[in-house]
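Forum > Structural Biology > Help requests

Title: Can anyone predict the 3D structure of Dipeptide ABC transporter, substrate-binding protein?

Hi all, first post here. I have the sequence for Dipeptide ABC transporter, substrate-binding protein but no way to get a structure on my laptop. I'd be grateful if someone could post the structure tokens.
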Amino acid sequence: MMKAGTPEKVDLNPIGTGPFQLQQYQKDSRILYKANDKYWGKKPDIDRLVFSITPDASVRYAKLQKNECQAMPYPNPADIAKMKQNKDIQLLEQPGLNVGYISFNVEKKTAR
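Reply #1:
Sure, ran it for you. Structure tokens for Dipeptide ABC transporter, substrate-binding protein below:
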């Protein structure tokens, strides 16, 4: 792809040897994978994966509650207490390295 002068295809048409193959990518919407029938290892237990791209944490949580998805990242902090009380939701937590910073544009006269 690089020699052909089409490097953008590396992201959109990846070639791999893993248990799943990219089937379809819809920008800002979803990613579909199917089981790779040429996979060298154990065949996956499921035939397809669907990653629904849902930017809003509240919408992701609603989908989880309605069983429209089986996993979600980055819950809204306000929803965590409710999630812990729901016996149907397994909430995974771990400490993380969080870095916060404030930057100032000192090139502007008003910031000096």
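The helical segments are 9-12, 57-65, 80-85. The radius of gyration is 21 Å.
Shout if anything looks off.
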